[in-house]
Amino acid sequence: MKEKKSMFKGYVLGLLTALLVSMMVVPGFAATVAKTITVYTGITLYYDGVKVEPKDANGKKVEPLLYNGTTYLPVRAVSGLFGEDINWDGKTQSVYIGDMPGKKTYLRDLPFYESSSLSLPDTLTMDGKTYVNCFKLGDASITGNKEYVSWNLDGAYDTLEFDVGHIFANDTAKQVIVYLDGQPAKIIDIGAGDKVKHVKVDLNGALRLKIQVEKGSRTGFGNAVLQ
User: Fold this and answer.
1) In whole angstroms, what is the distance from residue 12 CA to residue 167 CA?
2) For 196, which of 28, 70, 175, 182 is 20 to 30 Å away at the CA?
């Protein structure tokens, strides 16, 4: 009797899970519908010989399902095993595993591997505009040094755009050089009193990015976005 109760409980759980999936994802961008189906649960998942307990975004355990001879695995849990991000687009009812078209990556959120004087303030103001996604290079007490920061891009991005300029009105002239894989790709000259400049760099799948400031200090960077 106990065994039958356990089987019934598993069946109900599988039924509810399948119903939820059916309501969320419908091919061809059709309107979502509720559909009752019969599934089997109790499937154990292994990855490279190690038992895995799939969980949702809130850490709650979810179960693989068997339906009409096909095993269905929780997409979020499985993508996590392979180190891939997952995103849900409710407007198009689409699941994206890995890169999501048009998704922005702010440069300040990307781990850097080398820097001379990088700082990540909560906000940064240049020309009266306040930036939240920002960083700065240089120290107010030091001038004339080459300040730099480097990132590993691993060929994952096509373009980089950012605003760059003086942090203080009395800052001296400076030159900003963007290096891709060790070669200069863009040179930006910022004269004393110049306004903030918007810069776009074609990355062409570069593996490494380095931004270096010469002939000046205290340089601000705002809305630096990788795509």
Assistant:
1) 61
2) 182
